[in-house]
């Protein structure tokens, strides 16, 4: 039998990793709930037609498609063969594959809202914490199966939603003790305004893609790439001048207001940014964390208003740990128009790597079993088992060593599993109706009576439980 | 745009359903942890070769296989075509599909243990709560995506493990208030003994399959099916006589002991059952819940010792809500022999249906947002937002209505979302620096000062929070 393996780009999560990941999930989940978001879960698979064409050509290619069952059923063989020929020309075909694994949480959410629009009460605030799958080339920090944690409000145009989402970003990242994080904010309308006043409408998409890379290629890189696209030099120059402006949030807004005289959309975008910045400062002590970044564009076509990106503290080279923004008509893709929305996402796998690098996981996050009961003989272990059940009823997680074994072997088991306490019942204890409880880390112990053992044990462990 | 749909046999879980499911998951998870099991998660996909052939022909057919990416890449086209021809003959081929969605949690766990055997400390106790996928024909209570909740111990032959797993079943089902549940237990060795003393070795597999159906077809049905298999009448008669015996757990054991004189394996199986039954009675007040059922066989080939099945209370027609048993050499499939194990599983989707049918979900399981702050004007809502943030800091989940709207509309929103409390700040309250907090269910309210609002509000809500 060949040595078994795990698919490329995918991971097993052992106990310690699951606990650390749950620490992150629970902070995000609790914060979503505090802000009134309700949980939603959608299946791992969607109809292929729900997903195709929603993420650009690249997305279509990176989607994991699920083979239909029963392809070799005699009544299907001919259809299957024709369908496969289609696939070989790069098309998809329902007779070969009619389902795919979900690629993000947003499109399945839009599909859910479109299917249930008549039943939901709007605004509908949902959060969703589930894995998604992409057949990307695996590399450091990029996996083929990873979790997204999304919160969206649909059915509301109010800027209060953007305010709450910005507050959620800062609240979660503060609770994770990620000092120095930043939440970058921009507005697609402001980007439109900039494009307009520079006369770059013709090259809009290309320019947005280039601008979005500013933090990687620098402002001179932006100039070069624009020139490579054969954009007229005076227009490039105008854009570079705008992007060379430096100032705080309100200064940036005022600078652009002076330029935007003719651009109605640009002006509307600035008003929104200003209101968000001011409200945020009123309600959040960490107001410096919210920063206007005019280079922020976010790739996805469906954004139409304010956009967000959360960044790890500067010393960590990992880039974005979350993003989001406002969209006007996501469910329109599924035949239900006029449901505006806004949402954010946390990238848990990257947040995990950052917390690991900065050593920010709490020390007690590893804690699994609290107490190991030693197994030192038949009668001894019967008593141990009985006392153990009392501790379990009291909510304390326990194990009994599975067989009679030498003291040392049982101690090593506790040590490897980081079990902090041991309960030891040997021949002598059995005779005297006593029990030794030992703090394995501090090497301190106490003798307790079997009578009232649970309360005695709880009192002994309390300082370290 | 066509109306969107969800793949057949798969489900969206809206907020209320997620909360009910989480109620079940958290009871199972907490109990697993109390017994010292540690969390493990494996990817949704496994290498196809890891899964193929492990679940019989039927399993191979029902597996969801994932299409390789880049099939139409010019350098792959020829290989893809050949691979597809293989698939059309019912074979699988790595050049078309090298991954599949996991079909259960046991084989991926065995793969994990085999891959990490050198790093794990044994006995290794893990639990795993994740979805699995099967392309079964959807029907009531059977889905194509469903959750399994497994706990296994590997690296130990001790019967203490069986005892703990039986205790976990009764503890979880009692906490779920499923009064009248039963945990059936049998032993593959005892079944071997019965087969031996009836001289049925030649028909062993067929007989086990027939016996396993006794609760559906009755003892006369067993007789008929065995005769249909052309099994000699005297042997059938001997078996039926054994299966007609009725008595309590220990009576059954004694009855079989008298028969099993020659069968070493059968005798060993009876000793194990007896020890489990006696120990269980010592440590569990609900000892009547554990019942020997000699018809229990469990389909999977890998079981070798004690086997379990959990059953819903008799009035619910749903059959098994969990099962498990001991296996001797699961990781042997992956080239790492001699790691014995034992495990159990809970079927959460069925447990959900049972709790729903018996109306056993706690009434507060629905609770999402606790407080809705009314939005009654620009200044009013600014004050409301500020006070709301104080409640959120205190851990109380809140929402503010997203825009200024009529009183009634906001009340209806709270009602539809089952939000129990409202905070109302109108013109008058703004002027007098007061706040109305209202219990929407009881139609009681109180006027609080804005100063010290959070503690006043908490005191008001305490009886119903």
**C-alpha end-to-end distance of chain A:** 45 Å
Shape field of chain A: globular
Q: Rg of chain A, please?
A: 29 Å
Can you count the helices of chain A?
A: 17
Number of strands of chain A: 16
**Averaged pLDDT of chain A, please?**
93
Largest sheet features of chain A: 8 strands, mixed
Q: In percent, how much strand structure appears in the residues of chain A? A: 15-25%
* Residue windows where pLDDT falls under 50 for at least 5 positions of chain A: none
Helix content of chain A: 40-55%
Largest interface: A-B, 99 and 99 residues
Describe this protein's structure:
The structure is a homodimer of 465-residue chains. In chain A, helix 7 (188-198) packs antiparallel against helix 12 (264-283) and helix 9 packs antiparallel against helix 10. In chain A, a hairpin with an 8-residue loop joins strand 9 and strand 10. The mean pLDDT of chain A is 93. Chain A starts with 14 loop residues before the first helix and ends with a helix. In chain A, the strands form three sheets. Chain A has an eight-stranded mixed sheet. Chain A has a five-stranded mixed sheet with strand order 13-12-14-15-16. A three-stranded antiparallel sheet of chain A has the order 2-4-3. Chain A is α+β, with helices and mostly antiparallel strands. Chain A has helices spanning 15-34, 48-51, 56-62, 77-88, 106-116, 160-175, 188-198, 204-212, 214-228, 233-243, 249-259, 264-283, 348-357, 378-393, 407-416, 427-432, 453-461, and strands spanning 38-39, 45-47, 65-66, 99-101, 124-133, 145-154, 182-187, 290-292, 303-311, 320-327, 341-347, 371-373, 398-400, 421-424, 434-439, 444-449. The first copy, chain A, is globular and about 95 Å long. Helices cover 43% and strands 18% of the residues of chain A. Chains A and B meet through helix 1, strand 1, strand 2, strand 3 and helix 4 of A and helix 1, strand 1, strand 2, strand 3 and helix 4 of B.
């Amino acid at each position: 039998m060949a040595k078994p393996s795990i698919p490329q780009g995918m991971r097993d999560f052992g106990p310690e990793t699951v606990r650390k990941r749950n620490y992150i999930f629970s902070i995000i989940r609790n914060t979503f709930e505090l802000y009134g978001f309700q949980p939603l879960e959608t299946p791992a698979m969607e109809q292929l037609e729900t997903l195709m064409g929603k993420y650009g050509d690249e997305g279509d290619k990176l989607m994991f498609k699920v083979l239909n069952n029963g392809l070799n059923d005699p009544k299907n063989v001919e259809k299957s063969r024709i369908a496969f020929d289609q696939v070989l020309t790069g098309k998809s075909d329902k007779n070969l594959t009619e389902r795919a694994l979900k690629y993000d949480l947003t499109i399945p959410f839009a599909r859910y809202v479109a299917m249930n629009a008549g039943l939901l009460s709007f605004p509908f605030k949902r959060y969703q914490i589930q894995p998604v799958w992409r057949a990307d080339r695996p590399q450091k920090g990029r996996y083929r199966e990873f979790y997204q944690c999304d919160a969206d409000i649909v059915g509301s145009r109010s800027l209060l939603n953007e305010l709450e989402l910005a507050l959620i970003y800062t609240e979660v990242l503060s609770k994770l003790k990620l000092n120095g994080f930043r939440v970058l904010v921009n507005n697609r309308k402001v980007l439109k305004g900039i494009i307009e006043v520079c006369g770059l409408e013709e090259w809009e998409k290309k320019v947005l893609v280039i601008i979005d890379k500013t933090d990687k290629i620098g402002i001179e890189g932006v100039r070069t790439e624009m020139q490579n696209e054969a954009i007229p030099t005076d227009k490039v120059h105008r854009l570079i001048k705008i992007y060379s402006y430096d100032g705080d949030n309100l200064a940036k807004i005022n600078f652009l207001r002076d330029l935007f005289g003719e651009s109605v959309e640009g002006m509307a975008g600035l008003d929104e940014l200003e209101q968000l910045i001011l409200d945020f400062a009123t309600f959040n002590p960490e107001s410096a964390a919210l920063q206007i970044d005019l280079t922020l564009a976010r790739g996805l076509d469906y954004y139409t208003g304010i956009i967000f990106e959360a960044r790890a503290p500067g010393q960590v080279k990992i880039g974005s740990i979350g993003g989001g923004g406002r969209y006007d008509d996501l469910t329109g893709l599924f035949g239900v128009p006029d449901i505006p929305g806004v949402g954010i996402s946390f990238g848990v796998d990257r947040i995990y790597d950052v917390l690991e690098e900065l050593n920010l996981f709490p020390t007690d996050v590893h804690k699994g079993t609290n107490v190991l009961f030693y197994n030192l003989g038949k009668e001894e272990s019967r008593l141990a088992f009985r006392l153990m059940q009392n501790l379990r009823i009291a909510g304390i997680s326990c194990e009994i060593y599975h067989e009679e074994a030498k003291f040392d072997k049982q101690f090593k088991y506790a040590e490897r599993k980081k079990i902090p306490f041991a309960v030891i019942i040997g021949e002598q204890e059995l005779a005297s109706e006593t029990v030794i409880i030992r703090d394995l880390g501090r090497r301190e112990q106490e003798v307790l009576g079997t009578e009232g053992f649970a309360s005695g044990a709880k009192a002994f462990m309390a300082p370290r439980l």
